[in-house]
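Question (not urgent): is this output format expected?
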Amino acid sequence: MAVLNEEQEMLRDMAREWAVNESPVTEFRKVRASEEPEAFDRSAYATMAEMGWTGVVIPEEHGGSDFGWLSAGLVVEELGKTLTASPLVMNTIAASAIILGGSDEQKAKYLPRLASGEMIATLAVDEGAKHDPSAIETSVSGGKISGSKAFVHEAHGADLFVVAAKDGLYLVEKGDGVSLATRKLTDQRSHADVTFDGAAADKLANGGDGLLDDVLDRARVLTAAEMLGMAQQVCDDTLAYLKQRVQFNQVLASFQALQHRMADLFADLAQMRSAVEAGLQAVDGGFGVARAATIAKAEANRVMHRISNEGIQLHGGIGMTDEYDVGFYLKRARVLEASVGSSGWLKDRFAKLSDY
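Got this back:
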């Protein structure tokens, strides 16, 4: 486990206490039942902004705390444990794009508003069912952007889109030339196909040719942090269930075969935590980010897939019923596994990074 300083421990504990007491899975059930396209509670997000979570990676001169990516990961992990529905992950990633590639004017215009929660931003990259940054066809001419983006997370609540075009990343505000078509995915969160038809676009020109990759690597480690929280919670809930469920006049946790399965999951979870925290620390340190982020997301995909499956199986058939929460984690997991890189895509990328 990463060694945390006192401030990081306080941040983690505050996030954990708030998530457990103010945003348990019952709150996600309410969001789901409302069937609002935004699929998150704006008052809860405003509270997150008040606690400073929306500005953890944003520099102090722009209203943030500049607390680093490991700190952001600690918050996201705790929110992942309770399936808190919010645009925090996407907003943080979009903010990082402006930090890395924005001009002084762009930073001054957007970062304070993103840090305060006044504005919400998201990232729009993929144009098909699979993650493939090399297949981008969206183009910009005369300051106007045209193209379509598929499966944009948190699109309905976004005021600002960081859009990948053929020649770089652009900032596009919600309004004329921007239209959304809702996509219903199994996790019941906000997803949409977004069409840009001559919308005003402002280029992020300072990040160099590798800006998109740099932003996507940050998206991978922060997504992996959410998955880490989810995996931890599924493991904890499944163990608690085995300790109280009686079968054949014995508590299920007393069966050695089930003990072995839980021990395997515990080992997988430890390996996942090591990979995810290493990815977050690599971003903070600025060294070996591409490889560390790829490993973090690939390991998160592998372990979350297994733990979510095992959680369902060890709960028995009731695991997929709406009465139990464990099914929600599996559904969210399947969406996140495909986001910013499937396992196959990530393995291929790691091989290329390693010159195999």
